[in-house]
Amino acid sequence: MSENVRVRFAPSPTGYLHVGGARTALFNWLYARHHGGTFILRIEDTDKQRNTTEAVQVVYDSLRWLGLDWDEGPEIGGDHDPYFQSERDAIYESYFQRLQEGGHLYQDKDGGAWRFRFTREVVEVDDLICGPVAFDFANVEITPDMTIRRPDGSWIFHFVNVVDDIEMRMTHVIRGEDHLPNTPKHLQLYRALGVVPPRFAHIPLILNKDGSKMSKRDQGASINSYIEGGYAPEAVRNYFCLLGWSPKDDTEVLPLDQLIARFDLDAVNRKGAHFDIAKCDWFNGQYIQRMPMERYLELAQPWLAQAGIVAPTEQLEPVLALEKMKVTHFREIPDRISFFFTEDYAYDLAAVEKTLRKPGALERLAQIAGTYSVLETFDAMTLEAKLKELAGSLGVKPAEFIHPTRVAVSGRGVGPSLYHMLEVLGKGRTLARIQQTLTRFAA
RNA sequence: GACCCUAUCGUCCAGUGGCCUAGGACACUCCCCUUUCACGGGAGUAACACGGGUUCGAAUCCCGUUAGGGUCGCCA
Questions:
Q1: N or C: chain A end with fewer CB closer than 10 Å?
Q2: Which nucleotides along chain B are within 7 A of a protein C-beta?
Q3: Closest residue by Cα to the C1' atom of nucleotide B3?
Q4: Residue nearest to nucleotide B69 (CA to C1')
Q5: What is the pLDDT of residue A1?
Q6: Which of A76-80, A190-194, A214-218, A255-259 has the lowest mean pLDDT?
Q7: Nucleotide nearest A391 (Cα, C1')
Q8: A98 to each of A35, A103, A104, A337, A345, how far by Cα in Å?
Q9: What's the pLDDT at A212?
């Protein structure tokens, strides 16, 4: 039982990380962390033309964004360096030699490619998730021998994948269910090489909500879309965990330490999961509400910077706090708070039409400005009390003051709670903005 | 077409023979809170694919059908 778990994520760099791949990486990572094992990243870049350094960078960025750190692999190193298949030629060569010496290989007549001769029998895969699954290799027509090396000397996935898993001492191979039919072929390779294979666990695929296959273009398919869409990585990670796995009670929002403590392969589902971005959005909102102010500020920062909103934290924090319980994506934030940072904010035409153009609106604006101008304390509670007092004394509804004031100081019909918004704005700016509005719409 | 996997509300999950007139969450509808927009609270609509078995008893076990998905590359 002292077996040290070693698992890996072995993506082919294609320029983006698919949600399915990310989830595979996540399950491997979780499994490693749960069992105190080692999580390895290996880049399967045997297809030379298609793989670029930028594409590899995308893999790193996506994994790191999700918080999936690897213990061995590119940029980290490890006992089994290098972690790029393109740099492991000598190793493959020696394994190829072993197969050849064992009489397992032959060269194709026409092309000259090298094939591995399957043993013609039933091979059983004892999958940790799917259970025992038998594949019959008896018919050569149905399962022709597998090509492992091209005529130009380059290697085929099946071969290098198995060699690396042997070399890197993998104990468990957790991968997408699309690999299940490949597994008996890989098992034949292990046997021919005289190596005890790792345990296999095939996790269900992720499909679109309607059940169709997720392609690059579909919403939520690329990890980049979350980075660019204003998601909190911890929220996305939590949502991904629940795609094909559940803690078995009804908890859904689970902190990372809980996820690690509770995750295990025996609780992984067999049914394919349909992806629902709406639920992912809900998780994001929940995480934003619950996260500490510092983290909230940290994640909002890039979005503010991009929108040209720069201000010291002391000024930013109270403004952002106003939206913390309301926002679902960080990308929404700049637009919602931009009016705080310029006196030249735009007036929403519909809001102006609906409230400022209303008969008596400007008079009431002047009245509330008068009331507020004499206040010593300018906090939400006082502001609310005074506004209601004024409305009451004039026999009008508070709304007749609230709406014009909101539009006057922010230019819009919707926003944070009025009194809290005014408190953050402060007395000076509040009065100036009302005055500015009065002047502007007086005619 | 062959082989393999799967089958509970629209979606994600719970349920491993009686506790199920099937539970939670998202989404949707309505109500409350809030004279903004949200959050929050409450209520509601909504599912065991179908047909045979096994059993005193089946969402749970077996068989078949159907449906969905996957794999059959000198892609990974």
A1: N
A2: 2-8, 10-15, 23-27, 34-40, 68-76
A3: A135
A4: A272
A5: 38
A6: A214-218
A7: B35
A8: 34, 9, 9, 66, 74
A9: 77
Span A154-170, pLDDT tens digits: 999 999 999 999 999 99
Contact A275, A209 (CB under 8 A): yes
Query: The dihedral of CA A95, A97, A103, A104: what is its sign?
Result: positive
pLDDT tens-digit map of A209-224: 777 778 777 888 899 9
Span CA (A32) to C1' (B19), Å: 37
Q: Which nucleotide is the nearest neighbour of A275, by CA and C1'?
A: B11
Nucleotide nearest to A147 (CA to C1'): B74
Instruction: Tell me: cis bond preceding A82? Omega within 30 of 0 counts.
Output: yes
- Region of residue A390 (phi > 0: left; psi between -120 and 50: alpha; otherwise: beta): alpha
Which residue numbers of A are catalytic?
216
pLDDT number for residue A218: 82
Could you write out the DSSP letters of every residue in A179-239? Answer: GGGGHHHHHHHHHHHT-PPPEEEEEPPEE-TTSPBP-TTSTT-BHHHHHHTT--HHHHHHH
Is beta strand A146-149 parallel, antiparallel or unpaired with respect to A114-116?
antiparallel
CA of A205 to C1' of B7 (A): 15
Q: Report phi then psi at A325, rounded to 5.
A: -85, 0
Report which residue is nearest nucleotide B7 when distances run from CA to C1'.
A271
Percent of chain A with pLDDT over 70: 98
Give the mean pLDDT of A131-140.
93
pLDDT of amino acid A126: 94
Q: How far is the CA of A250 from the C1' of B19 (A)?
A: 18
* pTM of the shown model: 0.94
Helical H segments across A242-373, by residue range: 256-262, 277-290, 293-306, 313-321, 333-337, 349-351, 361-373
Query: Among all strands, which nt has the closest C1' to A152 (CA)?
Result: B74
Question: Distance, angstroms, CA A94 to C1' B32?
Answer: 73
A417 CA to B33 C1' in angstroms comes to 14
